[in-house]
Amino acid sequence: MPLLPLASGLSFGFNNATPSGFIICGLLVVLSIASWVAMTRKFLLLKRVRKANASFCSDLRRSPHPLSLFQAGERFLEAPMFHVYHDACRELAFYLLNTDTVDAHFSRRLQSAGRITPSEMNAVKETMERAVSEAALRLETGLGVVASALSGAPVLGLLGTVWGVMESFGGLASIADGGGLRALAPGLSSAMLTTIAGLVVALPSMFGYNFLVSRIRLQIARIEHFSADFASILDRHFVDHRTTTPDLPSSISDLDSIGLDAFSGAPSGLASSHPIESHS
Questions:
Q1: Do 270 and 84 touch, CB atoms closer than 8 A?
Q2: Disulfide check for 115: which of 10, 104, 240, 249 has CB 3.0–4.6 Å away?
């Protein structure tokens, strides 16, 4: 008997599929739809995150001092870098002013505020690290569905194949004359259909998962770089590293004296943390 073309073979297997084969294929279809939806949503999310980070970094580089965006109440809700910045500013304002609430007198009180100690700055850095971890978790949420499709679809397809082969041999044994290859072919063809379906689901999930993981890791690395660079800026402008003595002056007399000259000139650290646009 001549070999059937691929399309004819798939059609023959589908036409002779058993109820168990249809159930397995139905589960694989549901898994495939869930995987594609998760990959599409994650891809669109990463695209929005790149744009939001770019907009936030652009505004931050143009700001006159490190806390200006926080003081102005600017919001970049889809930018993970903004959440790191906002949490750091709230923690810093608490140690500088004993409150993290921005009001009409925030600028005046900040001008006359003292500097914080290195131990208080360590608390600010810990807050930033927690914000980075939370951002990483948000970026990684949803990948479990794609990973399940990647690892589960081939196993589910293999289960359908083994089940179909078992049914085929069981049916062959019930034939009086023992049948032959012609009697066994429909069952084997339908059994192989589930393996093919499992691979069709798993292969796109594998490529999509690897692509998304690489993009997410790149975003997390950029957020970590931004966190480290912004922590250095806060450390230079707001932390008193001198030996504390009773008569040691430690006030910030004018915000102009702590302007972001280096920051507005795109310091190398923050420039390296600029979102993906230049790399993607």
A1: no
A2: 240
Query: Given this model, what pLDDT does residue 65 score?
Result: 87
User: Is residue 246, in this structure, part of any structural domain at all?
Assistant: no
Structure pTM? 0.74
Q: Which of 179, 177, 275 is nearest to 226 (CA)?
A: 275
Burial class of residue 271 (count of CB atoms within 10 Å of its CB; 0-12, 13-18, 19+): middle
pLDDT one-digit tens code per residue, 19-29:
777 888 889 99
**Would you say residue 55 has pLDDT above 90?**
yes
pLDDT at 1: 42
Show the domain range for 231: 6-241+251-278
Cα within 13 Å of Cα(96), Cβ side: 31
Of residues 138, 278, 149, the one with CA closest to residue 216: 138
Whether residue 201 is contained in a domain is answered as: yes
- H helices of the chain, in order, are 6-15, 19-62, 68-72, 80-97, 106-111, 118-140, 143-173, 181-238, 261-264, 268-272
